[in-house]
Design a protein that fits this description.
Blueprint: E1 9-11, H1 20-26, H2 37-53, E2 58-63, H3 66-77, E3 83-88, H4 91-102, E4 106-111, H5 120-129, E5 135-141, H6 153-162, E6 168-172, E7 191-195, E8 206-211, H7 213-219, H8 231-235, H9 250-267, H10 269-290, E9 301-302, E10 314-318, H11 323-334, E11 336-340, E12 355-359, H12 366-382, H13 391-400
Parallel strand pairs: 1-11, 3-4, 3-5, 5-6, 6-7
Antiparallel strand pairs: 2-8, 7-8, 9-10, 10-12, 11-12
Helix pairs in contact: 1-9, 2-9, 3-4, 5-6, 9-10, 10-12, 10-13, 11-12, 12-13
This protein binds pyridoxal-5'-phosphate.
Length: 410
């Protein structure tokens, strides 16, 4: 018998759950794209996007996904042959690096593996060794969605400053923005990118590039940029159509307007961050119990051991021999779709099945996360996967705010 009939939950790390309000806002006839409500509404998005990125500088909107933002930001900040340094904490760094190579940049990785955060001191040392200042940018994935490692961008900026190095600090915040705390200006991040389909709760289709004055200066020598990707007319358009270099993504903009209303004007960004933090702590508390199974290495385990480097948006889980089986079970028996493991083992090998990920970004309440955790708990039992007890209780204790048990604050 399957218990999957009834409301289903999508708990993959992007696209995230689209609120009904956002869907309803998109359900409308096509608007005029030359004058009127759409034009005014679109202009209203820019200040709210800047609030989400915590920047006073520039925001541009591209029609595209995260890969589009990867390309857009590099095209505007680099000349062919430039060297970029990519500290790596998972496979999204590889993706961004491939885009950089495609643009004719030289890519150097500092690989930290798949389980720990970037070491700011190691980045600082590499920059100090770069006495000729050949490195033009440090490209950091804030939260790597494959490993769920979150790195400390503020500390990385401090190391860059201490090294006296002029490279740009460019951040991929596609998984983290609107979920994990991110302060573009305060942390000294020069460019930040995100997509609409994760923390911003809008169906995939638009992506954002934020950039400051230092990045504006880099644009002056950037010879990678083509007319379509150029952020100059998009930031300061003479006519509305320059904003998108063509037809506006009309319905996405209405959806995004509704999502930003929810985040910026109703709940408030800091409350959104606090909700994600609390829910992530509840999830970590559940795992702390499940992990306590007394057997060696066969049960469930969080990929990131250091609580302060665990994302509040996505969690990678190691489950030797049973990752895929548990995902299949929760989907077919409980109506909860978990994410596949990414970048931990090559596709087609038996080890590929040892991993899964949980998306907990965006439109997520206490009860919806409890549903996901309960489905996992039931699956661990149904499949006889070794696990400790008391996980759901530990999660509700965190959610209730009366944590009598000791859980590290992440
Ligand atoms: C999702 C994601 C991307 C890629 O976004 P797409 O929309 O799939 O192109 C890049 N970086 C990070 C950190 C992501 O989470």
């Amino acid at each position: 018998m399957s218990l999957a009939h009834g409301p289903r939950t999508l708990a993959i790390p992007g696209p995230s759950i689209v609120p009904d309000r956002v869907l309803r806002a998109m359900h409308r006839p096509a608007p005029n794209i030359y004058v009127g409500a759409l034009v005014d509404m679109t202009r209203s998005l820019i200040p709210d996007l800047k609030k989400v990125a915590r920047t006073e500088h520039h925001a541009t909107i591209y029609i595209g996904n995260g890969h589009a933002a990867w390309e857009a930001v590099l095209a505007n900040t680099h000349a062919r042959g430039d060297l970029v340094l990519i500290p790596r904490t998972g496979s999204f760094a590889d993706g961004w690096g491939a885009v950089a190579r495609g643009l004719g940049l030289q890519v150097e990785y500092l690989d930290f593996g798949n389980r720990v955060a970037m070491d700011p001191a190691a980045i600082g040392q590499r920059l100090r060794d770069d006495t000729d200042h050949e490195i033009r940018s440090v490209l950091c994935v804030h939260v790597d969605t494959s490993s769920s490692v979150r790195s400390d961008l503020r500390a990385i900026r401090a190391e860059m400053d201490a090294a006296g190095h002029p490279a740009l600090l460019q951040a991929d915040c596609i998984a983290s923005m609107g979920c994990d705390v991110f302060e573009m200006d305060e942390w000294g991040v020069d460019t930040a990118i995100t997509g609409c389909q994760k923390g911003l709760m809008t169906p995939p289709g638009v992506a954002f590039v934020f950039y400051n004055d230092k990045a504006t200066r880099a644009r002056e020598r950037a010879d990678c940029v083509t007319a379509y990707w150029d952020w100059v007319p998009r930031t300061d358009p003479e006519v509305f159509s320059h904003l998108f270099d063509g037809t506006a993504p009309t319905h996405h903009l209405y959806g995004l307007r509704e999502a930003l209303d929810m985040i910026v004007h109703e709940e408030g960004l800091e409350a959104v961050w606090a909700r994600h933090a609390r829910l992530a702590r509840a999830l970590h508390a559940a795992f702390a119990r499940w992990e306590d199974h007394g057997t060696d290495g066969r049960g469930v385990e969080l990929n990131v051991r250091a609580p302060e480097h665990r994302s509040h948006a996505v969690t990678a889980v190691r489950l030797p021999g049973a990752g895929t089986r548990l995902r299949d079970w929760t989907e077919t028996q409980m109506g909860v779709t978990l994410g596949i493991g990414l970048g931990m083992a090559p596709a087609g090998t038996p080890e590929w099945d040892d991993f899964l990920r949980i998306g907990h970004m965006g439109h997520l309440s206490g009860h919806s996360l409890m549903g996901t955790l309960s489905a996992i708990d039931a699956g661990l039992k149904a499949l006889s996967i070794p696990h400790g007890g008391g996980a759901l209780e530990a999660a509700t204790a965190v959610m209730s705010g009366v944590t009598s048990i000791c859980i590290p604050d992440t």
